[in-house]
Amino acid sequence: MGNIITYLKWRGDLNFSERPFCLVDNLVLSAFAYQDLSGIVTDDKEPVTVADAYARYQEKNPDKKEETASQFTAVHITLDDESRYIAFRGTDNTIIGWQEDFGIGSMVVPAQLMAKDYLERTMEEGKHYRIGGHSKGGNLAIFSAAQCEEKLQDQIIAVYNNDGPGLSADIIPKERLAAIRKKVCWIVPEFSIIGTLFPCGMPDRILGSDADGLMQHDIYTWQIEGDTVCEKETLTENCRFYVQIFDTWITSATLEQRKTFTKDFFDALKAGGAATMDEVWGGGLDGFGTILLSIIHSERKTKIVIAKFIHSFVSNCKHIDFKEAVRSREILQAGLLFAAGLIFIIFPEAALRLVGRFLGMAVIVFSGRKMLQCAVNDGIDKKQKEHRILSWLAAICVMEFLVVNKSAVLLSTHFLLGILLILFSFRNFYQAITVYRNLPVRFGMFLVSVAAILMGIISLSQIQTESAVVFTIGSFLVIYSVALIFKELYKNGKQKMK
């Protein structure tokens, strides 16, 4: 399946006088707005061809550092059919850019006012315009078209919002949006969170994507076949679940609460010195601890908004059929793990010896079964059979010694538990990568894998501190079983929403 790059390679030699403007052209021009054209294209209305702009770009080494509190870039493009396309740039990877995105839900941000002013300064009388953008750029396209003068609105052919947030009815009068709604083409991938915030009705187009989850926001992953987009009938099941949660959360918080939350949240992200979202994700446990501490010391309004988000999540799980869920095999398994974890925590030494003897007896039974199978197998020569029988017999003797001997059973249990936990960690990590496509589930499984391998290392290295080791493993079992229970309830709730 192709994307906008393959489309350009296929149709890039044709101009708009030879073929009509299509939806994919809008995607291409919206993506084009992300190019850094500072010093190449200026505000003096002196036109520059794409070829000339590319040549200048190749000679240039732009400084991409962002230091302003607002980010705004627009490109005014004249097409071969004499129509114009105004493309607004979306959000980059800086924390400032993301903060302005979140601010859209609580106030009119500077970039929106700049977009409106740009339209009114650059639109020429008698010309026809298409306006669009990706992510925040799509929001700027809608805002500027809705807020500009009425005579300019008459010149607008279409407004394209490519997976960008809509306009909050608490901020923008509904009648302003209603004036241009018929011209708006609202486009989202089948998993869209950003593009479904503050919607004005259902999306006009839902596109397929080659990516998973939140990564579908990348416009280069959207599927193109020929000069048409690959459409889907509806948003994914997971997406609909999250959209409902965010809708409930947004409607429950006041404008002032949203504004304070946005400030405190992004101040927390910047508390560790990070300037980009990549630096936030790469900050590790220390960075996360700094962020968490900053949120804890945030204003009361922010804590209220966080509490409302948790309440929104819980309220949207009302579809769960608890009677059906608790009868599932997964819930029963999680319940057994929870009980085992409690036993480990309450009776650590006794639990360790019990587990050691259980594992030892399991190995004895397995070895005895293999020894009997070998004895009655006529397909093995006599010497090979004797060697195998002696090997299995030796294994039985060793395990019997470990089961009977008090200190030995502790040593063997530590070793076996450590190996089992490490193997479980690798198995869980492999399944997260190859089997599960849901990002929250993957993230949860990654956390479990990390915890399991740490428990395995502790079990192998801290043999003399048996109570601490078993208590830690018991805590892991309890947390893991609770996570399994929530996962199964979440799965049940989504199924009931269909």
Description:
The chain has 20 helices and 8 strands. By secondary structure, the protein is of the alpha/beta class. Helix 1 crosses helix 2 and helix 5 (110-122) packs across helix 6. It has helices at 4-11, 23-32, 50-59, 95-103, 110-122, 136-147, 150-153, 174-178, 237-252, 255-270, 277-281, 284-296, 300-315, 322-326, 329-346, 348-375, 382-404, 406-434, 439-461, 466-497; strands spanning 74-78, 84-88, 129-134, 156-162, 184-189, 205-207, 224-225, 228-229. The two termini are 29 Å apart.
Give a quick summary of the entry:
With 498 residues, this protein is α/β, with parallel strands linked by helices. It contains 20 helices and eight strands.
List descriptors.
single chain; 498 residues; alpha/beta; six-stranded mixed sheet; two-stranded antiparallel ribbon; 59% helix
Please tell me how large the radius of gyration is.
30 Å
Unreliable stretches, pLDDT < 50, 5 or more residues?
64-70
- Residue share in β-strands: 5-15%
Structural class: alpha/beta
Distance between the termini: 29 Å
Write the layout of secondary structure elements.
Layout: H1 4-11, H2 23-32, H3 50-59, E1 74-78, E2 84-88, H4 95-103, H5 110-122, E3 129-134, H6 136-147, H7 150-153, E4 156-162, H8 174-178, E5 184-189, E6 205-207, E7 224-225, E8 228-229, H9 237-252, H10 255-270, H11 277-281, H12 284-296, H13 300-315, H14 322-326, H15 329-346, H16 348-375, H17 382-404, H18 406-434, H19 439-461, H20 466-497
Parallel strand pairs: 2-3, 3-4, 4-5, 5-6
Antiparallel strand pairs: 1-2, 7-8
